[in-house]
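Lab manual, section 2.4: Encoding a predicted structure.

Procedure: take the sequence of the chain (658 residues), apply the prediction step described in section 2.3, and record the output as structure tokens. A sample record is shown.
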Amino acid sequence: MKGKERKWVWLMLLLVALLAACQQADPSVDEVNESAEEIVTAVTTVVAEEERSSYLNPDLSIEERVDDLLGRMTLAEKIGQMTLVEKGSIVEQDITDLYIGALLSGGGGSPRVNEPDNWLEMVNGYQAYALETPLQIPLLYGIDAVHGHSNVRGAVLFPHNIGLGAAGNAELVREIGRVTAIETAATGIYWNYAPAVSIPQDIRWGRTYEGYSEDTALVTELSRAYLEGLQGDDLTAVDTIVATPKHFVGDGGTVWGTSNTGDYEIDQGDTQLDEAALREIHLPPYTAAIEAGARSIMVSYSSWNGTKMHEHKYLITDVLKGEMGFDGFVVSDWEAINQVDPNYYEAVVSAINAGIDMNMVPYNYKLFIEALTAAVENGDVSQERIDDAVRRILTVKFELGLFERPLADDSLLETVGSEAHRELARQAVRESVVLLDHDGETLPIGADVQTIFVGGEAADDIGLQSGGWSIEWQGRPGNITEGTTILEGIEAAASPDTRVQFNRFGNFERLTDDNGNPLTADVGILVIGEQPYAEGQGDSNNLNLSEADLLAVERMRGSSNKLVVIVLSGRPLIITELLPLADAVIAAWLPGTEGQGVADVIFGEYEFSGRLAYTWPRNMAQLPFDFANLPAVGCDAPLFPFGYGLTPNDSTPELPEC
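Recorded output:
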């Protein structure tokens, strides 16, 4: 006899015995009825607690707990679990009334006061509403912590993935994942929409910097390491979080001019490849991620040969869940289901039947709930499909230990932006920097240098050196968070006897020496590059340096004996006009908050070790590259090949005059 059955029998025997005792004492009928009611209430309470405790019992297997919980849920509760809402649009009571299963902060979706403790308080506040539901299923809260916990003021911001690809150090990337998990978990968030495992094939794409490399093998190695860092060895630990490899599949292969989203040109466009090429180029990082224990995967806005990924049942259900054995849950991108069909009901039916388990519906969540409810009632979406989706979601929540600790504590808050974490980011910066061009003698800058001119607005701007997805979705110029600018790093690294002068325009014409003559710097350092952007707003068919940047180069060339140009960008830019004017050119990508890592290498504290993870074009006409037929030499060859990078002892190889 099972334990639960024995308890039922024992309780019923107890009830009979007590009733008999009451009758022998010859009480009144009312007293007997009152006693019976009390006993029945007690029995019912015990049984209810016994049944309720099954899915709340951590000693049971996760499969048993999910089975028990799923069996108790109504259709409304199940569809609530499939609904992911942006925190800025949620009516808090709807979390309880509609059984909402997940919330997120979109880019810039911070609490009113953007500090780590306010984030923790905010997330716990939303969680409290979820715990008021009958089954008390905790929320899963998600965020794009794509280069550190990048929405939170005071958190450390690492180099964007394009820089980590140039560093090529898997163990470093694993540690970055570990630190990102710790700082994210510190604010009560246990779900990260990262890593991007995109393999950008056209650098005109505005999301190029989110990809580690154009090379499949390098992306596979580094993204797996990052995932392992985020998730650690035990997802129930307070300092581990769920990773989300994205965007399944082929988002880096879209073709210029195929996007139908606003004024985007390539982002969310169409990847036009046969299946063999799709599998060879874009699928391997997902295989590695699943082997490493990925628990959620985000689907791409893009299409494959004209079919939107969010309705691609073959790739999501047959390949990802079936052939590849992915048993976590699949989440949509931001309102991406809306792009599947102009009829919203049909879009929901197509996407859910294709295998989307959770819909990121930031605003119109009630419309989604109504549509999916109607689809089930109409027989257009089966109950089995709903149960499969919810089972996957609940499994991850149990794996995270959310039922045991739904409310996060403040034990990790002191780690956010800690000195140890900033030192790791500084290491990442210096390993990511690539020396592109050098005369063989300018670097490293020695202690005997008397005067250094530093120019360019990007030299003293945390926002510009961090790029998009930094505090805000698109990022913005300005000292948006704590950190060290490149200028501050230079000032700290220079000899105490060296005079460092800064002008954001690179204009030092008014400076004079002790004799009143125009002052000439021993070394000029100019920081130029792109303004911040994210996603399709960064799509660009013009990667040339701006007129303002070129003017600053000319100014500083005239006022410096030696000129070092540092390029900040989310992709290779066209720099052929720059090379004849500079003695050294450095690609520093988007280094994040620890700008002193750049100074570490230009002053010789550490060697340049970065190598290009992307082929560098000579001109715009070369884009997109035909990698299968890329010339190695001559004017049709790229300016710098994949894997290129100099050390200070090197001089730039002779380039053809084109």
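Check your result against the sample. Residues 177 and 229 are 4 Å apart (CA to CA).
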